[in-house]
Amino acid sequence: MLLTGANKMKIMQVLLVIAILSALANAQQQLPSAPAPSSTTETALVPVQMRAIVDTLAGTWSITWTDKDGHVIGKGKEVWKIAPGGIPFIEENRSTVNGKPAEDYAAMWWDNKAQTIHGIWCDATINDEGCSGFNVTLDGKDVVLTGEWEYLGKRQSWREVFSATRTAMTQTLSTGEPGKELKPAPTIRGTKR
Description:
Oligomer: single chain
Largest sheet: 10 strands, antiparallel, barrel
CATH topology of the largest domain: Lipocalin
Order of helices and strands: HHHEEEEEEEEEE
Structural class: alpha+beta
Number of domains: 2
């Protein structure tokens, strides 16, 4: 078989393509496996006393706020994630409620010395102190937060219960005067993104 210039060029192109594909396949096999995502790595560092809470709340949630009559009054995004080092477990809430920004931050951590979970909630728009502490407990699979804050010089109590499945979450909030019966406040329903 006599090779012409055009045939030689086609054969060279085919061989070049085969060589490139072979090199890419070889490089692909030699790549180190990707490291575990930081959330997986950080989860391993979470104290066992916090794991049920992390398992219940961790993730990014699309949230809808409803008033006590079930009317939608806001929407937003809530992110629960483990901070570097496995402590604390933090929440960032960015919403619009009744046409106004409603953003807050919370964090929880295991206190090995006191053998309890502490929390702090921050929202300078409705908390005269800027941030205030809260207690964290589990009621079955529900995460229960309780605390007090001051707004416009008046002390308030609050209780928030998080009930969640793998894909849906409900936050039931109640507020009122310390030592008195708490009344329902807006409810937040979330869908995991």
